[in-house]
Every structure is written in C-alpha cells, then in structure tokens.
Give the backbone structure.
Amino acid sequence: MGVTFVEIASGFFETSVFIYGVSLLLIYALLAIMSFLNIALFLRKESYTDYKVIVGSPLAPGISVIAPAFNEGLTIISNVRSLLTFDYPNYEVIIINDGSTDDTLEKVINEFSLVKVDFAYDIKLSAKPVRGVYKSRDEAYAKLIVVDKENGKAKADATNVGINVSNFPYFLCTDVDCILHEQTLGMLIRPMLEEENMRVIATGATLRMANSCEVDEGVLIAIKAPRPLLARFQELEYIRSFVMGKMGWSYINAVPNVSGGLGMFDKEIAVKAGGYDPASFGEDMELRMRMSRYVYDNKIKASVRYIPTTLCWTEGPTSVKIFMRQRTRWARGLLQLMLAHKKMLFNPAYGRVGLIVFPYNFFFELLAPVVEFLGIIYYLFLIYFGLVNWPYAIILLIFVYTYSVMISSLSVLWDQLTFQYYKTWKDVIRVIAMVFVEMIIYHPLIVVFSLRGYWFQLTNRKHSWGNMQRAGFKKKSDDKSKKPQPAVSPS
C-alpha cells in the first residue's frame, strides 16, 4: 500500500518542528555561552574603568534625554525628577507632551515653574505640529525642556519631535514611566567612546520591573522583586532576554534591537536614516534596522552594543488587559518590520544583520507563536485519533520543560551572583519560582497575544499608543528629611 498524502504531510511537519526545536535549543545554549563570555569581559573592563574621568571631563559629549509622555499625570513629576538626577556634566532632558488629555502638562508647568519660550524649531524629521516649547524660570531646572505637541498616535512621532528639538550629538530614548540610574549616561556613552575600529551607533542596557520597588523623589531607594504575579513574570522575561539574550548577541555584534525604554543613539546616523517611523508599532527595532541599512548602504563600519548592568526600571502592566495591548502592539511591530525590510533577509550586502539578526528575528521570533499554535493543533489532532506515542511525547515534554527551567534559572542566578540587585534571597526565590509555571501560565498569553497582533496587522485593524494606566511608584516611608540615595551603584 502506498504512502498517503496525510502521512507525508505529517512526517514533513514532525521533521520540520523537530529541526526547528533543536535549532532553537542550540541557539539558546550558544547565547548562554556567549553571554557568560561577554559579561566576564565587561566585568574585567569595569575593574579598571573610572567613570569619574568620563563625567568629570569637559570634553564629555553632550547627550539629549528624550522622553515622550501621553496621559502620564499620575507619575510625571517623579519621572521628570528622576531624569534630572544624572551624574553627567553635559546633558538636557526633553519631555514631549504628546497631546495628553489629562493634567500631565499642567502638573509639569506648575511643579517646575515653566514658561513658554520662543524656540527655533529645526524640522529634521517629520512629525505632528508643535504647539509650544517650555523652559523653567528656576536655574535648578535649566536642563529641562518641555515640548507640547499635537497627538501623533505613536511614540515614534513624539520622539522625532524630541530629536528635532535636541541640541547634542547623542540622544537617549526612554519612557517617562522609567526610573534611570544616575550613572546611566556615563555608562551608555562609554562604548561609543572606546571602540576604535567601528562607529557604535547605539547602546543599551538591562531593564527590570519597577513594580514594588521603593522610589523617593524620582530616585530608586530599594530594589524588590515585583509582588504582582504578572509583573513578576515580566521581570523573569526581562532578565533572561537582556542578560542571557542581548548580551550574547552583543558578543558577536548582532544585537536584534535596542529597547525603546532605554537606548542611546548616534543622532547623525539616526537622522540620516530617517528617524523613527510614526507608522511603526515596533519603533525601537524599526529604527535599529533603518540605521543598519543606512550604515551598510554607505559602507560605514558600525556596531550596536549592550551592557549587562541594570540601568532602567520600568513599571510593567499588572492587568491582563493592558498587558494584552502592549504585546499585541509589539507583535504587530515585528510583523510590520519583517515586511518593510524583507530585502535584508539572507542578504549578504547587510552583513551580520542580513545573515544573522534578520533570519533569527524571522524564524525564532516572528514564526515561533505560529509554530507553537500549529503544534498544539497537530497534537490535538493526534490525540483525537489516538495516534500519540505517549511515552515519547512525555519524555519530549519533560526535556523541553527542564531545558526551559534550566536556562531561565541560570539567567536569574547569574544576574544575582554577578550584580546582587536583590538584597535578600527571598526576592530571588520569588522570581525563580515563576520559572516553573511560566510555560503553563505566562507563555500561552504571549503566544495568544502575538497571534492577535499578527491578525490585527494583516487585517489592518486600528491601534493607537493608548493609556497604560500607571499605578504609580511605591514611595519610601522613612524620614523624608534625608536625601534619597540610589539603591545600587553600577561601578
């Protein structure tokens, strides 16, 4: 009897999924090794780096800190204060009020004694019209610039306005819900100054959840593992992604993207590449690709670097509804990016970006939710017809589960043993505990929301920046007369 079409299709699918799964496991193992090597290299450099030389030098390059804000009235004051505490000689803070409908702008004006000023607005990048530029009457806030603009329905549009207003050759893109360490600028500018053979066009660092941390006057006082379950899952995901993932990719100059929550960029290259795309849902990765295309097209030797030190704490969504919006937007951005820059896939003209970064993003980021969904449908089909080899299926499930637990646990332990952000092992255990239930509770949400994002993009559903509905930061309850001290020092 001949082989049926169903048997051929089944054999092809099983073989493809097996090769896909093995490839992914090998990539994770390789990333872990490269991450350990890169972090060891970073720590060796740190042992003889004196940041006082960088921050004390009058030749330190100027940096513009750009933070778009949309309906952030609940936390805007502490956020702005945080951005004004950098230990760096030459920087400015640009807050872009992206047409907020709440009291965001009013609060900032009153708190920092702002007045509307005449400003020579140089339109390098297209964006929605600016309604006004504000500066403070108080010299203590001389570094602060607040821009009020019409709502552009995307963070990218607001960030382009910030770049237009900026005065310095480098800019740091962040979110106003982020708490940044005081040494952030010095640490992120260092790779751009020390690399001799390549032009470093972007740098990034590790992000963590600010949920449950203690904050006083915009300064992080105590780092704690998030208590809300959803935020704790995100903490685990971020540690694994940055410490194990991006540090590994950075070792071979193949960083997939620089986070929109914390990324420093070479302004000249960013502007020449066209800046942020206001129509993009994944503005951070899209800008990275635009800049890469520009430097390769113009024969510029360039690199993107990451450092393992946590320099940014962001308030993660604690409700499934807000989390769904966020991950749907991220998934739309990824699909949008793949379609917009598809000519880079396997294109040797774009070096490691075309041969490593883009293929990885396509096969193991974009297609992963689709493969997992099809795999579940296939297994349900086999179960229905009684075709499952249960001993083999159980062994395979145990292997994948154990491997996932091992990689995630190593990421958390390596981060804690190296940098000791958590002051008690109770917090470490809280995060590691998520490893054992992530595949059952958290990961299915990621798959469903990713597929939802793909569907929205393919059907051209409308989707705006939206309101993240911040809960606000936990304030220190100790004596307020004491000057806040940072919770950690990366040096």
